[in-house]
Amino acid sequence: MNLDKILKLVNQNNKFIIPKNWAQGRTVYGGLSASIAYQAAKNELQTERPIRSMSCNFIGPFKVEQEFLIDTEVLREGGNVSSVQTSLIQDKQVKVRAQFVFGKARETKISVDNKILHTMQVPKKPSFMPNIPGLTPKFLEHFDIQFTDGGKPFTGSKKDHIYGWMRLAIPSKSLTHAHLIALIDAWPPTVLQKLRLPASGSTMTWNLNFVNPLQSFSDSEWFAYQAETLQYSEGYGITTANIWDSQANLIAISTQNVTVFA
User: Fold this and answer.
1) Contact in structure between 29 and 139 (CB atoms under 8 Å)
2) Mean pLDDT of 163-183
């Protein structure tokens, strides 16, 4: 089941099952969880408004091949901004909870141009992450990921960053912010490259802010990605990432709090 089909299910049902080809270890891939939560929240809007930010908390193991319930609540819908909360519930427990802020564009006297740039070239002959049975997460079959700098997981790299490009493996009929949310989280935590042996890890919280969310993208668009480790100690770390479209326009800024069991 591809991403388009899952998002269609969100539009039609508040209960369904995620197949195992979206697994990240024994749980549902976090980017898909957040994407489902976003789509459900967007469906609650009375007035069409673009997403401005997302704050997602991955609370407990959200299992594949097991039914779950989507619960949404409009916290406030004002004249300019709407706040919506989505909970994904399984075994009568909240597994994922996310809050989304949607805001319409307004006239303003303030204008600050983006100064965050990159110099990476769009891939011509991409070389993707290898599929290693038992090690490469199943969900990666849905995405094309190319590293341009930084180490792959468990290579003993001394670097603290990961740079590269990403796109959907199967182009969507209409690439939306739900697709972007699922895509952006596909990268491994920047700290995993420092290990030489496999170890499990997870994202606990994820904040994603969108820049100029009214722009549109091609169905097979490449997106540039540059992530840095800001700090890691006592088993927990903070990473930040910038994301651009293929025309080098900054589209999102991501911050995650991650933990690795090693």
Assistant:
1) yes
2) 94
* Contact residues for 79 (Cβ-Cβ < 8 A; gap 6+): none
d(CA 219, CA 63) in angstroms, rounded, equals: 29
Q: Are 85 and 99 in contact (CB under 8 A)?
A: yes
Separation of alpha carbons 207 and 253, rounded Å: 8
For residue 162, the 8-state DSSP code is E
Give pLDDT, residue 18: 97
CB neighbours of 46 closer than 8 A, spacing ≥ 6? 77, 82
CATH architecture of the domain covering 3-105+118-260: Beta Barrel (2.40)
pLDDT for 134 equals 67
In tens, the pLDDT along 137-147 reads 899 999 999 99
What does the pLDDT read at residue 130? 65
Residue 52 phi/psi, 5-degree rounding, is -110, -40
> What is the SS3 assignment for 178?
helix
DSSP 109-158: S----------PPPPSS--PPP--TTTS-GGGGGEEEEEEESPPTTS---
H or E stretch including 27? strand 27-28
Average pLDDT over residues 201-216: 91
Task: Give the three-state DSSP class for 182.
Answer: helix
Radius of gyration of the chain (CA): 18
Spans of all domains in the chain: 3-105+118-260
Cβ proximity of 4 and 173 under 8 Å? yes
Q: Which residue from 156, 161, 82 is spatially nearest to 120, judged by alpha carbons?
A: 161
